[in-house]
Amino acid sequence: MKTPAATPDLFAPLPSVPSALALRIAPEAQRKPSARQLWVAVHFPDLALEALERDVDERRPHAVIDGSGSAQRIAACDRAAARAGVRPGMALNAAFALAPRLAARARQPRSEERLLERCAAWAGQFTPLVSIEPPDALLLEVRGSLGLFGGAAALCERISSALGCRGFNAAVTLAPTPRASLWLARAGRNAVIVEPAALTGALATLPISSLGWPQASCALLVSMGLGTVGDCLRLPRDGWTRRLGVELLEELDQAMGRAPEVRRSYQRAQRFNARFEPAVEISETDRLAMALEPLLEALGRFLKGWQGGVGSFVIGLRHRVAAESILRVGLAAASGDARHFMALVRARLERYVLPEPVTELRLRSGPVLPLTFTSGSVFLSRRMPPDAAGGVPRLVERLRARLGEEAVFGVCLVPEHRPEAAWRVAQLDSTASGRVHRDRTGNTVVRPLWMLTRPEALRMVDGTPHYRGPLSIESGPERIETGWWDGKDVTRDYYVARAARGARLWIYQERRAPHGWFWHGIFG
Hints:
By secondary structure, this protein is an alpha+beta fold. Strand 19 and strand 20 (about 445) form a beta hairpin.
């Protein structure tokens, strides 16, 4: 049985527990920042291992290998392997000699890319400017976010704590330039440096082997007796250019803030798309609802990161033989509430029959929509259900989930004087207009909410229209003569009448012979 290595839910709420990862905070980090930009670098040294699936037995050592044939070497290893003496860069045969039970897996670059993208999407809650630095790091421009998270040191502490609780081994640093922050993180220096003047001292002791420079360049520098960034900064620029070219010199200038550096911002997905393959086939709707719950919760956290909602989402159910089943869930108003999504899905599944057992579940959302936030009521009872404040849109969504999309709809008015043609079926939303009409002079006229599909003839007794007794006229007439252009013209005089039992009816008399009386609607 396989289980994800160390990739728990990235979109879970941030924990409030203190970080187990101590940060070396420079004294200037407590002062007001003066740099134009501040960059947080997050380095994942064990990303290759964290992106793999491992055995449930955590006591067994695990490692990721690079290369092929006799050139295979250890790229990353877990703590159990490290305790046995296995180290990154070690030959695979040597690692097996130290740890015979070592579970060695080939590196999966695509899985690492996907995991890094998920981390980038998760980091969007701290700043909208997130950059992916392949193969194992992120950069966050956080100058505008410090006030929201209590300052530079508190922000780094929060990121470290959150990643640690999710099972990631990460080094978090902050510096005024992106390259300096990245170098410090890849060297394992959990530092917080705010002032540009402190960069020289912080970078001086970094070994050149941690900068990601070509091996040939590093070997040349070592042969010259240079082993740290400080040694490189003391070299004459002309001599450096002749021996090593301008590229590495430009990187040094970028790290020190002497040259500009452009970073591409990571663009988060506009739609949620996830799938889940259960361990066993699902043949009951109750179990199907339980399997869908984590996907819907992930959708809610995705929308929380966007501060938005969706107007619909689609659930795909794959089977062994039958074609994929599609369940479409529409919302009357945009929402990002995962609990409400789950309630709609459960209501929909109550009347759904699975054609075959489900082997895979997919969840796809519509585009992210902006949410309209309103103030809650001070007097809202604690005993009311969580979705009680949703009003009519939530009621419509629950009815559609139980009865079907086609069973619940809205109506809207059209500019037409004939009552039977003055409305049409429309999408029901919270902005639906009321039934207000005006006559030709602009005065408001009353219309009943309940209109008959076809007017019904009224019985006449001694010249008075009857409906379960005589009708008394309260107001009218309102004359309607229109429709001559389409061959469905009407000539009627409408009245509001009171029935013997108190009901108010909307009736009319034909102006053409035989001048019959008809009942057309009833007022609420």
